[in-house]
Write a structure and sequence with these properties.
single chain, 5 strands, alpha/beta, Rossmann fold, 246 residues
Length: 246
């Protein structure tokens, strides 16, 4: 249990896939969103958010998490920004996942809220389901809130000069990225925390996890299912938050 890892991310940034890959290694156990308010309902194990409500001391709860696991994946917005930064500071090895195309991240998140389908894990990808229109005002509010959360983390890292590996979704999970390239990029992230302890079965399990055909819930085609896709692209097509949805 010598690893001490935090994967901090905003929603729809690939954090679940990265967490799952790390968790495949026999020497790593990453708690999945310990402060997710639906954790008990989802059957994800111990309710750490209830512990936080009872004790009021985040450091104590993080210590409890570290006794059960040697890392955690935490999403921005599940706690206050100040608490998010405390979670980030608690763990030694830090990864911060960000998606360059914030428009895709936010719209993907809002689609997941509609469909209740956040991950594959045995389910089929989102196909020809009927999606409701997403109001541009809702997208705009999400974009502004998420941009502020990311800015606060980046500012904290800069001011404190805290070592942290910033990982961009597009560098790991882009649809046009070869599987072999995705595997090598992930191995570059994981090697330092497991002292190069890489076996053939572990690498093969990574390959299966990073295979888009069997694990990716969304694709460019998903956005085509939005009835008001043209309106969204018209409102946000300047590129400020990423390229328009295809």
């Amino acid at each position: 249990m010598e690893a001490n890892i935090i994967i901090l991310a905003h929603p729809r940034s690939g954090s679940t896939s990265l967490r799952d890959v790390f968790d495949l290694h026999p020497r790593i156990s990453i708690s999945n969103e310990p402060f997710n308010p639906t954790r008990r309902t989802l059957g994800w194990g111990h309710d750490f958010l209830a512990d936080l409500s009872a004790s009021g001391t985040l450091n104590q709860v993080l210590s409890s998490i570290s006794r059960r696991h040697n890392g955690a994946k935490h999403l921005l917005g599940q706690l206050t920004v100040e608490q998010d930064l405390e979670v980030l500071s608690f763990f030694k090895t830090k990864y911060f996942l960000v998606r360059r195309n914030q428009l895709r991240a936010v719209v993907s998140c809002l689609i997941a809220k509609q469909t209740s389908q956040w991950h594959r894990r045995g389910d089929s990808p989102i196909g020809d389901c009927q999606l409701a229109p997403i109001e541009p005002a809702i997208i705009d509010a999400f974009l502004l809130n998420q941009a502020e959360q990311i800015r606060r983390v980046q500012e904290h890292l800069r001011q404190t000069k805290t070592p942290c590996t910033v990982v961009y979704y597009e560098d790991l999970f882009a649809e046009d990225l070869l599987l072999s390239d995705r595997i090598e990029k992930v191995l570059q992230l994981i090697r330092p925390v497991i002292d190069g302890d890489l076996t053939g079965p572990f690498i093969r399990s990574i390959s299966a996890k990073l295979d888009h055909d069997s694990n990716k819930v969304n694709s460019s085609r998903t956005y085509q299912l939005l009835p008001n896709l043209d309106e969204i692209n018209r409102v946000f097509g300047s590129g400020e938050y990423g390229d328009p949805l295809e």
